[in-house]
Each structure stands twice: as structure tokens, then as C-alpha cells.
Amino acid sequence: xxxxxxxxxxxxxxxxxxxxxxxxxxxxxxxxxxxxxxxxxxxxxxxxxxxxxxxxxxxxxxxxxxxxxxxxxxxxxxxxxxxxxxxxxxxxxxxxxxxxxxxxxxxxxxxxxxxxxxxxxxxxxxxxxxxxxxxxxxxxxxxxxxxxxxxxxxxxxxxxxxxxxxxxxxxxxxxxxxxxxxxxxxxxxxxxxxxxxxxxxxxxxxxxxxxxxxxxxxxxxxxxxxxxxxxxxxxxxxxxxxxxxxxxxxxxxxxxxxxxxxxxxxxxxxxxxxxxxxxxxxxxxxxxxxxxxxxxx
Length: 297
Known about the structure:
Blueprint: H1 2-38, H2 55-60, H3 66-101, H4 105-116, H5 123-134, H6 140-147, H7 161-187, H8 191-199, H9 204-215, H10 217-232, H11 236-242, H12 253-263, H13 267-293
């Protein structure tokens, strides 16, 4: 009996071990090392990395300092992107899932693949496609506007069109993932609930509010949190499409972190900015969870 228990534990450990090693090598150790670096004057081209304690963090929160400007400007641009993109990613993802479930089963798989395909392409390919779409002189969108006798739009150089362009690109690129998750959640809702509601005379809206939304609540919270985290970590879209312009109006926080690390060669202060960004994401996710489930308590 004891031998059998030991063998079972050993087998379980061996199954978990590859993930545990990967977690330590690619997540835990880099996080701890980044935290270590943030407490040092870690210039990239120097061997002298002296301990500065909380100095890098203090500079981030000192008005007038270079790091303060970099951090607050990047954070504000990132927050704007989160506010513009996350509600659409959640609402349109759910709408597409609901629409998909209304299609005949024989073509449902084709449409699911069609909407999910953009999610599988790389950021560089996404940028090439949308640079051609948004080109001011020869882009598809301005060509379409010209046929409607509407003046061309500088999609990637004028406000607020740069934000419209970035959000449109993000929706096209990533909404397929949310749609698939919502579709699976909707398929798990028992049909008996809807049949009972129909007998009671409930219309489609009442079924949606009273049955669908409560049933997929955990999945919706998951999508809201993951979409928020992904939007906070936005980089490819503004870097490849707008280069942070016009001016610094779309230069998000992650772009400033990488510029500080590799252009400014100041890895210590860049790590401090990244750690603060991670803390903000954790706080926002915790608040979202609390809002979603706080009413039950």
C-alpha cells in the first residue's frame, strides 16, 4: 500500500515536472532577476551595477524627472487603449459567438475558422496587412471613401483616427479568441433552461439576461481579465503601425520600457517601470474580480 502510494506520487511529480521546470526557467527566475535589477543602477554597457535601493522607483514617482514623464505618458496612453479596446473585445466577441450559434451546424465550423484565422498570424504580418489598408494615398479604406466622395482620412497620423486604427486592428487580430471561448461557454448552457423559460413566456432578451449572462459569468470574467492584461501589454500595434505617433500620443508604456532599456541602456530603471506596470495590472485584475463577485458576499 505504501509502495503504491509512493509510486503514485512519483508518477504525479513526473507529470508536473516539465511544467514546473518551464515555469521556473521562463517565468519565475526572470521575474526575480528583473526585481533584482530594478534595485540597481544597471547600465547595459557597464560592468559596475551598484545597488541604489528604491531610487529607480522614487524617480518614477517624482514629478519633473525623466522617468516620471516616461512612465506617466506611457501609462496614460496604455490606459486609453485599454478603455477603447477591452469593452469592444468583450461585447463584440460575445455578439459574434451568439451569431455563430444561430448559424446552421454545417457552416458553423467554416465561420468559426474564418473569424479565428487572424489570431493565428504574427504581429508583423498583421501590420503589413493593415498598413496597406490604412495608407493615406493608396490604401483600401481611403479608396473606398473616395468612391463615396468623402475626403481621405490620415488614419495613422491624425488624432483621433490613430486610436480608431489601432482598435480596429486589434479587434480584427484578436477577437477570434474571445469568440471561441464565448462559443464554448454558450454551448455549455443547458437547453432545459431555455425551454423552461419559453414555457413561462420569456422573450429572447429576458432569456439572455436571466439565463445566458449568469451562466457564462465566470467565462466572461476570464475574458475581461485576459483582454485587459493583453491590452495593457500592447506593443506590436502602435510600434509597427504608428511608431507611437503622432508625437508620443500612442507611445504606450511597454514601448517606453523597451526604449529605456535598449536605447537608453538603463536596464535598472526600465525594470522598475516594468515591475510597476505589473503591479498596476494585478491591481486592476483584482478590482475587476472584486466587482464581478463582490455582490455575492
